[in-house]
Amino acid sequence: MQLTPFLMFAGNAQSALRSYVALFPDSRILSLELYAAGERGSEGSVKRAVFELNGARYMCIDSPVQHDFTFTPSISLFVECDSLPQFEQLLAALSIEGKVLMPAGAYGFSQRFAWIQDRFGVSWQFNLP
């Protein structure tokens, strides 16, 4: 059995996964299948992608169906950072055009913590233990 987080985007999956893979070490796109003309999804959008971020596997799609929902901060990707420079670099990169849910600070449970929603709608928690 394998458990894989699955992210559903609405047309920007390829931009998101390429941004994430470029940002995190030990990351790569394992497979990327795009919709062709005449298929259910918009031509060139992601039919199915599998990628790794820092060695952890994820899947994503661009939903061919319009939904009244998107990502919610109720579930997020939690990143344990190794250093303050790494924490600051990841936070800065993923905050661009995003939304800060908890600004970077010392909240008592770690040296530094922040929670953001990136420009694609995915929520991230960054922690420096």
Task: Describe the fold and architecture.
There is one protein chain. This protein folds into two domains: 6-62, Signal recognition particle alu RNA binding heterodimer, srp9/1; 77-128, Signal recognition particle alu RNA binding heterodimer, srp9/1, CATH 3.30.720.110. The chain contains two helices and eight strands. The chain starts with 5 loop residues before the first strand and ends with a strand. The chain has helices at 13-23, 84-95; strands spanning 6-9, 28-34, 46-53, 56-62, 77-80, 99-105, 112-117, 123-128. 18% of the residues lie in helices and 38% in strands. The chain is α/β, with parallel strands linked by helices and 129 residues long. The mean pLDDT is 96.
